[in-house]
From TrEMBL:
Claim: Metal-binding is one of the keywords in the record: no
KW Amino-acid biosynthesis (keyword) present: no
A GO biological process held by the record: regulation of growth
Gene3D superfamilies: Helix-loop-helix DNA-binding domain
Cross-referenced InterPro entries: bHLH_dom, HLH_DNA-bd_sf, PRE
PROSITE patterns: BHLH
Stretches assigned to the BHLH domain: 1-51
UniProt-recorded name of the protein: (wild Malaysian banana) hypothetical protein
Organism taxonomic ancestry: Eukaryota, Viridiplantae, Streptophyta, Embryophyta, Tracheophyta
Amino acid sequence: MSSRRSRISEEEIAELLSKLQSLLPEARRRGTSRASSAKLLKETCNYIKSLHREVDDLSDRLSEMMATMDMDSAQAEIIRSLFRP
């Protein structure tokens, strides 16, 4: 195996940034106008952080709901089934 790093062309970087932009809600609202790479990466980091906060909030809410629920109920079984592989 070669120890040299493979290079990504500027065209590939532009394509990846375009794909990333299409995934971000803020960038989609902006439409087709192109943001700088730095701004796009910053928006991506902020979006990922907001998703983490949302997951934490939903997890807390689920824990609270499960704590007040009769664990033998049909609703509790449905919720438990969602977490099984």
